Amino acid sequence: MAEAEEQETESLEESTDESEEEESEEEPKLKYERLSNGVTEILQKDAASCMTVHDKFLALGTHYGKVYLLDVQGNITQKFDVSPVKINQISLDESGEHMGVCSEDGKVQVFGLYSGEEFHETFDCPIKIIAVHPHFVRSSCKQFVTGGKKLLLFERSWMSRWKSSVLHEGEGNIRSVKWRGHLIAWANNMGVKIFDITSKQRITNVPRDDISLRPDMYPCSLCWKDSVTLIIGWGTSVKICSVKERHASEMRDLPSRYVEIVSQFETEFYISGLAPLCDQLVVLSYVKEVSEKTEREYCARPRLDIIQPLSETCEEISSDALTVRGFQENECRDYHLEYSEGESLFYIVSPRDVVVAKERDQDDHIDWLLEKKKYEEALMAAEISQKNIKRHKILDIGLAYINHLVEKGEYDIAARKCQKILGKNAALWEYEVYKFKEIGQLKAISPYLPRGDPVLKPLIYEMILHEFLESDYEGFATLIREWPGDLYNNSVIVQAVRDHLKRDSQNRTLLKTLAELYTYDKNYGNALEIYLTLRHKDVFQLIHKHNLFSSIKDKIVLLMDFDSEKAVDMLLDNEDKISIKKVVEELEDRPELQHVYLHKLFKRDHHKGQRYHEKQISLYAEYDRPNLLPFLRDSTHCPLEKALEICQQRNFVEETVYLLSRMGNSRSALKMIMEELHDVDKAIEFAKEQDDGELWEDLILYSIDKPPFITGLLNNIGTHVDPILLIHRIKEGMEIPNLRDSLVKILQDYNLQILLREGCKKILVADSLSLLKKMHRTQMKGVLVDEENICESCLSPILPSDAAKPFSVLVFHCRHMFHKECLPGPSTNPPAQFCGICSAKHRGPGSAILEMKK
């Protein structure tokens, strides 16, 4: 009955854990594997009681008193028969050269693994703990502690003798001890103490929280995170203690150090072991649960949790339930957590099993992502860490991702991913194309096929083109447009398109595509013919790109009908290939197109098409009258008589007026403006342009009996003709609109002219006076005369070499100098007033400004 209940409990527990794993989508932080090889062999006959870890090897103690040294794979390297009973604890120094062992029968051994030094002692009570000095290899650090009912410190003294001293006793059995640097931490039934081996002082006592728990069943777990941080786990409580230096002013009779609890919190389960992981904690927990069916308490699988300590609580990072052998029979004291400081390796020790937990690497992360079918994240992780991954290949992950997408029916995404995953591997590309063909999804992969590096077999591209040709003309045309023509056999595709055109000869998409195929094949004539038939915009690009001007000489009308603007620009840009004469001849039967061409030609160059200017008069008159007058004004090769005849026939008044004025018949032009247009403003404007008094006289005579014309003249002629001439001719009694306003404007214009004249006169007088003063100041200045100056007449130095000799010199304002006796003509008094040189050159007279005598 009991066995059945136990089996039921096991199955319930296992199913519960399986369901939790299925629902969990959070990636575990650690991975686990059993320590096998020699360990498996040992635990088949014996049970593990304790274990300690060094960076280079492991030491495992058993219930039958054996100590095994193991490598990291679990292989046995050495074996020691220490005692017939349970090994309670093993301790190693940091060098891994010395080991301490204690057992249930009171035996204590400390010996060198590679030397002959050894300590043996048997006590009369079980020794639960032992810890050797971390630097035991040094001669000055030959120390270790043991604990049973009391904590003893053994030190090797002079003559290699060992002496012992009691560090603590009287509070029950010593259950746990950890030595780090100069600090020893141990736990007894009452709490945790820390002893400073240097000062020989006990510096703290951390009392136990839950005194209801039996200390032998729920032992304390101690762990040094660093040389000053101690982590205590006892029952469900965790405390993080920091050893700090006491300030000199606070010393008095107190120890030089004290302990501060920096974090304290409760956990859900009983603690069996602790280990640091960066700023987090790894906690091994003993779990008891109650069966829902039998309501009996049973031992569940132990848990290994990673938690983030906070000041008064903690945050769970991850939690894993461990399936260790015989977990149903284990107690809290049967589990131990050991760790390697050099690597993030954690050893979960139980009587029948040793499980190694290690941080998951990038390969493990990718394994988990693939298991959860998160292929895209797995691919990204592999690309980021491609130098660090060992078991995975980016290509394999990518191919699995493509297969996954295809299975889900996401063909477009799968095809797009092929570009990144397959890269330049032509063989894989071809393999994937055939896979897409098998599932009828060639269209999906077509946009992503490589077109340069690499290039696939022509058959691959042709297969896809045939697929589109059978079902999607537009898609087929797109591929032909996007794919280079050398990817496939062009003649094969041309023949296939022709076959389809036999069934649908007017299909514009197929015709356009065929033209593009002809272009790829350099069959430009056929391509041009199709483009012109379709009136396709690419016809001009084709002509330019492949210099097909010789092929379009007889197709100019078609091009003009299609797009006259582009056609004319192209023809004018390439006059050397298609002459103006040829174009005009081709357009002879289409005068409207001929006009478009000649008009654009005239705009570019007024002289190139001069031989056609006479023809253009009729073309402008027929198709583009607004541009006729500008043409007549700009053209210097247009026959005026012919133009006048055409304009008079068509009664084009403005053009006729311009031609009459240009031919010198201004009076007839003015008469036409007044009689035909009846526009006094235009007539006045015309008279102003011609600036001819007789025209103004004709305009006044014509307007004298027309009051509106008189008003217009009064308003506009004030600055060109004396208004009195007009006013005197107005008949008395004639009613003139707005006469008052017109007269006021005339007076205002007259006043304005008077003001302008007076202003100009003032400016002129002021400028004249200013210049006169400036000239006077200039003429009043002295002129330097020295031996370097010469007489402009005799060309000898102006000053005599003998300074005592009398001399007379004339200096003009133009800076010319003369000896007085060198001046032409008889000597006069006063002397000559003008410089003969400047007067001769018409540079204006120079006045004599200085006469020097001595």
From TrEMBL:
Transmembrane ranges, per UniProt, are none
Tell me the SMART domains matching this sequence. Answer: CLH
Comp. bias regions, Acidic residues: 1-26
| UniProt KW keywords | Autophagy, Cytoplasm, Cytoplasmic vesicle, Endosome, Golgi apparatus, Lysosome, Membrane, Metal-binding, Protein transport, Transport, Zinc, Zinc-finger
Q: What GO biological process term is on the record, naming one?
A: cellular response to starvation
* Matching CDD domains: RING-H2_Vps41
Q: Where in the cell is it found?
A: Cytoplasm, Cytosol; Early endosome membrane; Endosome membrane; Late endosome membrane
Gene Ontology CC: one annotated term: Golgi apparatus
Q: CHCR repeats at which positions? A: 568-712
Main localization (coarse): cytoplasm
What does the function comment of this entry state? Answer: Plays a role in vesicle-mediated protein trafficking to lysosomal compartments including the endocytic membrane transport pathways.
Its family remark reads: Belongs to the VPS41 family.
**What protein name is recorded for this chain?**
Vacuolar protein sorting-associated protein 41 homolog
